[in-house]
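Known limitations

Files may contain more than one protein. Parsers should not assume a single record per file. Below, a two-record file is shown to illustrate correct handling: read the sequence, read the token line, then continue until end of file.
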Amino acid sequence: MITTYRAAPDIDVVSSTATIADLGSLAINAFVMHGDEPLLVDTGAVVEADDFMTALRTVIDPTELRWIWLSHTDFDHIGSLHTLLDENPQLRVITTFFGMGIMGLSSTPLPLDRVRLVNPGEQVSIGDHTLTAIKPPVYDNAVTVGFYDETSRALFSADCFGALVHDVPQSAADISDTDLRDGQTLWVTIDSPWIHNVDRKLFADHLAHIGRLDPTIVLSGHLPAAPGAMLDKLLDTLAAAPDAPTFVGPDHAMFEQMLAGMTAGTAD
């Protein structure tokens, strides 16, 4: 089920929840930033593309959108991308050179005349908003690029700060400190396993840079909207993540047990 909620005066969240067996639930978020030139950050999961479009239409007419910020090209971020491009000939996609290149290897490449390339550190002006592209401290796809909006002071962090939790509320402030820390640590060790091999000084410098942005709200693709006051807590958890246990997924024997549990009682 896909729901929507207002995270800030000019920002709506279009959100679903994925339940991962034995690990917890994960928010899958896209964001509508209203303004002179409305922007959509990511486009939901491929498996939920039709439901995503239905939910999106409750917060904006897709033909009013002018931009899509594609944080990266994973299947939980590109679900309705081409539906939107087909419906709205004025819509353009902001992504990196390699983001465009990866989409070019798919069956539905991006139309090159509708792409606006961006690199971390560069600014993009869209109507009444000025967006500064950033490379989040952690990510699972090398093309990842988030941004800080100078107008709303919102930080859009792609997969960074995601957390696997028991229940997914509409605000990260409603998750207990313990559940948030444990869920965020679990997520980063799964999603960015290279975290255990980082140069600690360089990583600390990157976290400090993100902290200096001082956003009013943190909007992650995989965490409920978080008040800006929570940023230090989120960064502290990332700072400790290199020393967390390495995640090891189920082996095949465990997988067969999981399958047996899911099918128990279904046969006559």
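...continuing to the second record:
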Amino acid sequence: MAPEKKDSLTLPLETQREKVIELLSRHFAHDTLSLDELERRIELAYQARGSAELHDLTRDLPAEGAALAKPAAAPLPDAFAPVEDRILSIMTETKRRGVWRLARHIDMWSIMSDTQLDLTEAIFPDGVTEIDVSAVMTSVKVIVPPGVRVVVQTTSVMATVSDESFEPPDVGSGAPVLRLTGFALMSEIKVRVRLRERLLESL
């Protein structure tokens, strides 16, 4: 006899919270939630004190099978995505944000500058997106949306490199991966999730 499926409401509250945030992130990734609505609901999820409050955050979402299925014909297949891109910032302040399709490989040069790369509205290709950072006496901040797995593999010399992303998707989940390589010399590189940054600023 097959074991009975455990009711989600009997799970510990923190586990329920994680599952709700994961579900909300998947709906955002498939355009059934806007960025503002995603952030609002995740903030409410962290504030929730019971199962009923968490359940209310996903009650109005369409069933996953219908909502998260990929369309039969994508408007822009990955084959048309740019392969390489370059961001150059020398003794200046550079900010890049908005809706744009990421290249699979991005060369970022930041020298004696303040560089911010906001990817919360960017379109990630399937698989791995690599940013090869060359940072010298500079500050680099990379902001990612929830639901992206971040891998930091930079080399640092007299520098600070911090990955402040949280609750990454499981390996093998099919979530986009952002990998940072390159080097940092007398610099600071930070990776943050958009939601966590907003929460910290509100404290």
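Parsers that stop after the first record will miss the second one. For reference, the second record is described as follows. The chain has two domains: 8-67, 78-202.
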